[in-house]
Amino acid sequence: MPSLITLDLTLCKGLTSLPDTIGEMQNLQTLFLGNCYNIAELPATITKLRSLVTLNLYNCGGLRYLPDTFDEFKTLQVLSLQGCEKLVEVPPSMSQCLTLTTLTLWNCHVLERIPDLSMIPKLQIDGVPEQLADWEVEQRKKRAEDAKAGGNKGVQQKQEKTSGWAAVKKGHAMLGTAASQHGRAVSREELEARNNPRAASNSTGAGDKEGGDPPQEPPPE
Has residue 212 been placed in a domain? Predict the structure, then answer.
């Protein structure tokens, strides 16, 4: 099937692996493997998909390992690892996947290692082990060193905003759960608004005050 553009294998619960020949589908742009619970790992040849833009591994609860050749992806932009409960690590090569713009890491409860992912514009992390806070400390140190070396503090501030770990440490697991129930990702702006409801309430109240009905005069006696 060399001309196939989209392959949707969602809810193929009996699927335990993908064939190595999947790397030959050079026109494939979208691959859905959501709820394929029994896939333990992906074939290394999957990174040979030269046209792949979206890889959805939502709720692949049995997935433990990813290929350590993510740097071979030349067009991958969106990767969802939401609900990959047994995933042990995010491979170091993912930090070299320069086209990746969105990565979702939700409810990966046994995750042990994460590489430097600060280059990903939209990084969404929730429900991962608390000990990975050490990872965030290392990333901040690295970003500070890079900013100092480059003499560009603006780069450091921008990368810190995209990290996503601050929201995790504030305990926004409830937000991730609510978003999961609606079947979509939560933007960083939404997280900030929900984490600071007082500011949102004040803003709304001010708007009501300015745009509300004028006060009514008392009736004549």
Answer: no
